[in-house]
Prior knowledge:
This protein is 38% helix and 17% strand. The chain has helices at 31-45, 90-99, 111-122, 148-159, 170-178, 204-209, 231-243, 259-265, 277-285, 301-308, 339-351, 353-367, 372-399; strands spanning 17-21, 49-54, 67-70, 73-76, 79-85, 103-106, 127-130, 165-167, 185-187, 217-222, 248-253, 270-273, 289-292, 313-316, 331-334. The strands form three sheets. It has a seven-stranded parallel beta sheet with strand order 3-2-1-6-7-8-9, with helices on both faces. The longest helix has 28 residues, at 372-399.
Amino acid sequence: xxxxxxxxxxxxxxxxxxxxxxxxxxxxxxxxxxxxxxxxxxxxxxxxxxxxxxxxxxxxxxxxxxxxxxxxxxxxxxxxxxxxxxxxxxxxxxxxxxxxxxxxxxxxxxxxxxxxxxxxxxxxxxxxxxxxxxxxxxxxxxxxxxxxxxxxxxxxxxxxxxxxxxxxxxxxxxxxxxxxxxxxxxxxxxxxxxxxxxxxxxxxxxxxxxxxxxxxxxxxxxxxxxxxxxxxxxxxxxxxxxxxxxxxxxxxxxxxxxxxxxxxxxxxxxxxxxxxxxxxxxxxxxxxxxxxxxxxxxxxxxxxxxxxxxxxxxxxxxxxxxxxxxxxxxxxxxxxxxxxxxxxxxxxxxxxxxxxxxxxxxxxxxxxxxxxxxxxxxxxxxxxxxxxxxxxxxxxxxxxxxxxxxxx
Length: 408
């Protein structure tokens, strides 16, 4: 028998209350966190209530969007800046039940995500998930490559239980389809604030103040200082450029556990630490080239921000940047890990100011095609379809005598 308390207006399948579960929401700033905060702000502007469940730290990295419920957690061994929620305790479950969500959005296949998925299935609430990071590739960077098949299999079990799985690009969808991660993979792309990230932010006085000469080519790295961001490839490429006599200066924006080691590897680099807002935008625009050797991202947020800032990008030809950079037009795509090829492309751009300028303008033009409002409106439409499909399937089960309810 169907409950009298229906979670949805049958004529309007837009969810009214959404519970978002994430392993990180405000204690470390990265691309996925920026996307999730932008999503929550957008949903609240549409009149949708959102409750975010995530681990928290004593000192958050920034002021988050929306209402955040702190989930008990412990520091990740060896990476204490990150925290791991050990499931969903009774107190958190009660808060979730009181909120009575129409939809569950899972941002990571961690212990908290698994607990929320089980809760959703038990209470007959549709669950969707967004794929932000290729966790299956992480073991490669910590001498545990043998773990990769097991991690991939565990992720497959998780995503197959979700109504929809959102990835940021066609390239990433192809990868997950080949891995059989889900039968319903959809695109949730990313946008960029083209007013904040703009060539107009270029500041030669700032460059001089941090030690970059006017005749030096500033090659920027922006991101967390962790091994999986391709720090080794970046440093090796800088060494090769220096050996060739190229006049350049690495500009490093970001913090992380590898800061000390990276500083030793690049003694001539300018380290700006963690920047955000206008300070970050100024650093991008005041650079001359952007170099991203990472292969672990599903979407190159930093690459898109660099493009909006009007600088060419040289990136690993991997899921994070493959669909953003037009090879030979807005920058270059290079076989991951090919130090010589990276150095060749960067040297060419360092020494050819006309090509560098043309690619910078093309990058800016390409970035303007991506706005957050259009991207998030499309995601909201996917939410509605997920709800509709869930109701339809449960109705069929009820007609077949399965006894499944549409409400909790």
